[in-house]
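[step 3/7] fold_predict: job queued, chain A
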Amino acid sequence: MRTLAHFILFFVISLSVGFGLSYWALEKGQLFGTLQVGPWIAWSDVGSPQPDPYTRAYISRNANLELSRAEGIKFVAKQDSDGRDILAQCNYRIDGTTPETSFWTLAAVNDRGASVTRESGPMTLRGDQVNRASDGSFALHVGPSLSASNWLETAAEGQMVLVLTLYDSSVFSGLSSLSNSLPSIFLERC
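[step 4/7] structure written:
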């Protein structure tokens, strides 16, 4: 009887640890199959011909039409560069550059993927419409309060996710150089 109780306890612990780690890997995206650069996280194997099991589970769970590696890569940020959750009612400044890419977009969505921008305004900021400094860097503003230049207006409250999609990018040719080429996210006011 004691052996059966130990076996059941071992079985329950094993299932809990296995399912718990799998859930955490899919929810937080930080264990397997992801690439993290500052606050930005991407599932780097999403568009590959042979994705790992965690990436396949992520694709199945989200049911999104994802880009292949040849088309680009999508980075998401749920927290700013200081580790605080990004909120739609706050104003953020996104400073820096992007890796070499033909085109990029920045969108603000909720945790279900629906846009949190003002209905009559633009849904994304596009790389070809952004004002840049002479060195190629930019400062983007995301939030409900009017900001000069590159501004994406939000009209919601609660958790917000920033989605930076790089199309036709050279990211996969040199992941080591990626660390200095994604923008930082700073809270301006809330």
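[step 5/7] annotate
DSSP finds two helices and ten strands in the chain.
The first strand starts at residue 34 and ends at 37.
exit 0
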